[in-house]
Amino acid sequence: MTGRQADALDRLFTAYGLPVPDGPGAPIDPAELFGRAAPVVLEIGSGMGETTAAMAGADPDRDYLAVEVHTPGIANLLDLVERHGLRNVRVARGDALELVRRLPAGSLDAVHVFFPDPWPKARHHKRRLIQPAHVALLRSRLAPGGTIHCATDWAEYAEAMRETLDADPELVNTHDGFAPRPAHRPVTKFERRALLAGRPVADLIYRRTPAGQPAGPASPAGPPSTA
């Protein structure tokens, strides 16, 4: 970590951070965590925090709960929170699925999974975040009408994500296959490097259907976005 990041972690984690210990723990009340009742966006794997900070700054009516395991990334996001005066961001340190298990059912307005580890080797696919059991857990925390938005630059993982999300009985694709690149998702340095290397970026946006309403047939496949 840089000195600035270390200082931010020391000073700000108590106010804006949330430790997520392994194993069972107390439920998390988002309204208590943020000090207000507002729609909540969960950012899984916030990296160095630039995307979270930019989206939260442009979206003050929603609260952003970022979860990350990389300490320098957590510290950098805390520094961005202070520099930009963001009051609608909290940063959880620990395992994302443990955090999600402690959130109330239906408590999230959106889940963002941007550029998760693709675990490209077949023997490691079981470690991927987007797989049926994990998607079911994430969906259960979405309010009806809430969205799960995934993005990846790994073509095989993009197809696997689409198949997994299509198969969930309470999620419906908001586009025919892959989504056009949303303008509200900031372009990160990681994404720029992927595009320069010739790896197209695929976005997938699915909405949780209201209780009792069928999601309908799976959407047809489409090419990943290169925009």
UniProtKB/TrEMBL annotation:
What Enzyme Commission number(s) does the record list for this chain?
A: 2.1.1.33
Entry binding sites for S-adenosyl-L-methionine: E43, E68, D95, D117
Instruction: Name the Gene Ontology molecular function terms of this record.
Output: tRNA (guanine(46)-N7)-methyltransferase activity
The metabolic or biological pathway listed in the UniProt record of this protein is:
tRNA modification; N(7)-methylguanine-tRNA biosynthesis
Q: Which UniProt keywords apply?
A: Methyltransferase, S-adenosyl-L-methionine, Transferase, tRNA processing
Membrane-crossing residue ranges in chain numbering = none
- Spell out the Gene3D superfamilies in the cross-references: Vaccinia Virus protein VP39
Which reaction does this enzyme catalyse, per its entry?
A: guanosine(46) in tRNA + S-adenosyl-L-methionine = N(7)-methylguanosine(46) in tRNA + S-adenosyl-L-homocysteine
What family does the entry list?
Belongs to the class I-like SAM-binding methyltransferase superfamily. TrmB family.
Protein's name according to its UniProt entry: tRNA (guanine-N(7)-)-methyltransferase
Q: Which organism is it from?
A: Micromonospora globbae
Q: Lineage of the source organism? A: Bacteria, Bacillati, Actinomycetota, Actinomycetes, Micromonosporales
